[in-house]
Structure formats: C-alpha cells, structure tokens
Amino acid sequence: MTQTGPKHIFISSLEHSAEMHCANLVAALKDKTAAPTSWPGQDHIQIPAQEPLRFTGFGGQRLAEAGCELLDNTVSRAAMIYNVVKQLGYYKKLIKQADDYFLRHRVDLLVVCDSPAFNFHIAKAAKKHGIPVLFYVAPQLWAWAPWRIRKLRKCCDKLACILPFEKDWFRSRGVDAEFVSNPLFDETEIDLHNNFKPYSNYSVQAPRVALLPGSRDAEIHSLWPAMLEISAALKEKHPDATFTTCAPDADKRAMLEAAAENTQLNIGYETNKLIDICKQSDLAIVASGSATLQVAAAGCPMVVMYQSNKLMWHLVGRWLVRLPHLSLVNILAGKELVPEFMPYFSSTKPIIDRAHGLLSTPSRMSQTSQSLLTLVEPLTQRRASDAVADIVLDILAE
C-alpha cells in the first residue's frame, strides 16, 4: 500500500550535546526541504516543494523548539556512566515506550545520536519493526569494547562519523560509514588562522586561564572542586593570574558559582561561550570530552583531566581501554600533544606542576597552539548537520 503524508523521523538523544546536534540536524533538514517555488528571475519555471518532514522522539527543550515532538525530556535526566545504574528503570521505560511507538506509528527513519549503551536498544527495537537506522556520532568502539562491532552491524544501516579516521575503521569492519565533519563547530564561525596564539605579549605573572569542568552534573561535582584547588595553587605561582569558566546554561552556571563562593579567586563566569573564552585565554584546564576539540579550535593549549572511581578503573576500566591516550586531541594526534590526567584520583599536584610548566614556557605554548589548529582543521571544513541531512534525505528517498 502506498504511504501518504510526510516522512516521519524518530530522533533519540539523551544528553545536552547530542540534543544540540539533533536540533541542528532538524533545522538543516527543514532548510533543505523548504524548496523555493521558482528560481530567481525564472518565475515561469515552478519548482515543486519537497514533502515536509515530521519529527518525534527523545530530547530536550532545544530539540522541541526546533520542531520535534518530544515523547520524553531525556536531556534533563542525563547521567554519567557510574550513576546510570540508578536510572536503569527509567531507561527501560524509554526503550519500551519507543518499541510501542514503532509498533503503533509509521516511522520512516530512526536517528540515534551518541549514548550508544542506550541507543543500541532503541536501534534494535527499530530494526525489529523494519525501520532503517542512522547512527549520528559513531560509538567509540575503536577505543574500548571493539567486540560490540557485531551488534552495530546488525542494527545500523548508516553511520555518520565525526572523527576522520573512523570512516576507514568502521568500513573495514563491515559498517557503511561516512565522515561528516564535527557537529561541535556547526554553530560557530571558525577562523583557524586568526586563532593562533604567538604569546608575544604574554606575561608569565598574569596568565589567563580557562576552567572547563564539563556540562554534566556529575562532571561538575567531581572536577570543579579540583579545578578550584588547581587554580588556587597556580595563583600562588602566578600572582596576577585571572580565571574564567563557562557553563552550558544558567542552572550549571549557578552551580559553579555556588561551589566557588568561598574562594578568593574572583572567577569570571560565562554561559555557552566556550570557544570565545578559550580564544582569550592562555591555557585551559578542561574535562576530557568533546570540549577539548573546541579548545583546540581556539588555538588554546590545555591540560586535560578526568576523575574516575579508583576501584572501578582498576577492576574494569583499564582492561577495556585499548588506546595509549584517552583524550580526543591526543588520540587524533597519535601522541601526547597536551598533558592528560585520565583518570586522576585524588592528588592534583601533578596537574598543577604540568600547568605551571606550560604557563612558564610561552614558546612551548605557542608551538602547541599551532599544532592544535593544524589538528582540528579537517573537522571544520563543512557543517556536519548539512552532511547528515543529505544522508537522511538519501535514505528517505530509497
């Protein structure tokens, strides 16, 4: 029977960054399907408008504002890996909700973004109902648990990779993959040449330091106190140092301010201006994750840190991880381009020492700035949301 009505896309995103990527994807799809009725100056040639698209799924307020009907606001419940156990009941409910929805409604494509531990289940449910699946952001199987490639092959029709080397890695293992660039840069005009830091007017006494503890509650709770401790120690070594931090939204900013109110650091606070802050900073202390690529695009040298449960790391984590480096910039560089402390458990002294060493050596920071800009150049060549939108339209046209 011929299907009528708009093509229906189901989107599954759990966390703030994934929701941002999906909201930009929805906007790109709307732009591409809103065809003009005629070419400029060729009014006699009518162009039929493409069929509108319908969006439903899991996400947050931003995805809703982009035009997606939310079945649940999952972004507000985003969890880190070590406290996700507390929310297993909630995630099981979501999986059943999606499965029931696929049964009762026509869905032409499922787009899952990041959070593979959850989205593998959503993808499996979709495939059970004959729905094609696009993975937007490749699961990092090349870093750990590579045996899950069999699961990915079964439930993924197309894989949108955001790191250059991923395309060949997944294709060699039987997954139809494309490199789409990195969605972190979709909303920002990046001028890599102008972001180079020569440190020609730099003062060792008065460095500008960006503090970036991440966007999740668990990251902030574990890393922000340590970053305050590091900052206090750096202030003693660099008396006129200034510090600025960035939060993804007003609630997280309030959380950071409350935790630092008893310090003497006089920290500057900004919201959703990570790249701008790093362009104006000499060094960043940053939580491991996608933010490190934004710091790199700002040409800002960095020290990367992440805290883990010591018992869990020694029992499980260190046996699963297959790479010599864990931060994205060092993975892409294939060497330790920036100092990384992943995981660090309690003492911040090694982090303080490395940060102080960088702040005391402007020539090294200048070299690092240029290397970082060269590293991220392939990630900024086009908007990932446009590339993924083209993939979506190709799938829907099949």
Unreliable spans are: 44-49, 311-320
Helix and strand composition category = alpha/beta
For this structure, what is the CATH class of the largest domain? Alpha Beta
Describe the sheet with the most strands: 7 strands, parallel
Query: Quick check: average pLDDT?
Result: 88
Radius of gyration: 22 Å
CATH architecture of the largest domain: 3-Layer(aba) Sandwich
- Element string (H = helix, E = strand): EHEEEHEHEHEHEHEEHEHEHEHEHHEHHH
Strand neighbour order, sheet with most strands: 5-4-1-6-7-8-9
**If helices are DSSP runs of H or I spanning 4 or more residues, what is the number of helices?**
15
Rough shape? elongated
**CATH overall fold name of the largest domain:** Rossmann fold
Residue share in β-strands: 15-25%
Quantity of strands, as a count: 15
Work out the count of structural domains. 2
CATH superfamily of the largest domain: Glycogen Phosphorylase B
Q: What is the first-to-last residue Cα distance?
A: 16 Å
Estimated helix fraction: 40-55%
Would you give an account of this structure?
This protein has 398 residues and is an alpha/beta fold. It folds into 2 domains: 7-184 and 383-397, Glycogen Phosphorylase B (Rossmann fold), CATH 3.40.50.2000; 193-380, Glycogen Phosphorylase B (Rossmann fold), CATH 3.40.50.2000. The protein is 42% helix and 18% strand. It contains 15 helices and 15 strands. The protein has helices at residues 16-33, 61-66, 88-104, 116-128, 149-155, 166-171, 217-237, 250-260, 274-279, 291-297, 310-320, 328-333, 349-359, 362-376, 384-397, and strands at 7-13, 38-39, 42-46, 53-59, 69-73, 109-113, 133-136, 158-161, 177-179, 208-212, 242-247, 268-271, 283-287, 302-307, 340-344. Strand 7, helix 5 (149-155) and strand 8 form a beta-alpha-beta unit. Helix 1 crosses helix 15 (384-397), helix 4 (116-128) packs parallel to helix 5 (149-155) and helix 7 (217-237) packs across helix 13 (349-359).
